[in-house]
Predict the 3D structure of the following.
Amino acid sequence: MGFKQKLSLVTCWLVPLSCMMMASTSALADTNTTVKETVNVSGKWLRHENGNVIKDPQTSGLVIWRDQLLTLSDRSALLKHQRALHRIEKHSARVGASAMPMRLSVELEASCFAKYLSNTPDLEALVVDPANDKVFYTVTEDASYDPLTPACAKQWLGSGSTAFPTLLVRMELNEDYQLTLTHARPLQYKPEFAVGNFPNDGIEGLAFAKNRWLYLALEKDKKKYPRIFRLKMDADFWKVPSFIAVEDPELLLPKGDVGAFPLNGMDYYPSKKGGHGGYLIAAARNNDQLWIIDLNKQRPTKMIDMSYWVNTADASCSAMETIPFTAIEGVAVDGERLWLINDPWKAHYLENIQCKSNAQHFRDMAPLLFSLPIDKGWFQ
């Protein structure tokens, strides 16, 4: 469903903090997709413990961690939010006062990537190591503003994508609740993948599946389609000081016009069927969809239209208002519940303003946290 279509869903304010399923009446033309559905869900403003909304954190990743949510900020956020993980109490959407700041290890300070990682890196996704919840991984995106030195550029030539390659970064939590960036390895794509040189349209989603397969969601390739790649993170993975050669699992992603939308957040949902590899739940932010992607490639990707809403406190407005420009960039699976967070889209966020009670929150680029039950019908 497009942005304009959402404005017609005037009855959804009757369903606060829940979702309502409505099947579409027509199937999509492409054979790699199935019939769409619509889910309406309302969110809560991300707030400090004192109740004030969080101003401009540009939340670009989301994970479940020790019964909390963790998020991080990209390079367009206010500086005070960058290079740290922020803890969110799930049900209140309150952000803890103490963040988990990042610092470089001695070894990483001597690398080609030290200057970029210690300055304002564009961090765009987050995942927890399935075997050790003190270890996290993120990826970098746009580094075009901070080019490598000539020697480093020569060393890391041939990424198959950008001149400053995308970095997969390992972080480890210390006893003082600070994060040490211990390792960084660049990603490499085969020429036949035709990823293209798009510094600000890189990896924006990470998800661990079974057997330590890490899936990576790319916003777009040369044909403007999103792609999903993967790599195997074995015991020796961080001992190798070279490119990470990713592979294409050739998942059944949508093609044609319906598939030409970037993926900007992703998590893994295990299958209840024995022997099945499970699913990826990914957010196509520009057209407000969730994509349900079968890792066994037995079923085509299901595209779920999402319509996002927020409460108002304005007597001249309806109890809830729709958010035409939401831009979800964080997806976290929490058992049978899904959590979503948006990265306020600076080019369009002010166009969401309708009721005066929420107007300043949009001006402050405050994000929203959404929650909904995972529907078993998505996997049938």
Notes: Residues 1-30 have pLDDT under 50 and may be disordered. The CA atoms of residues 64 and 332 lie 6 Å apart.
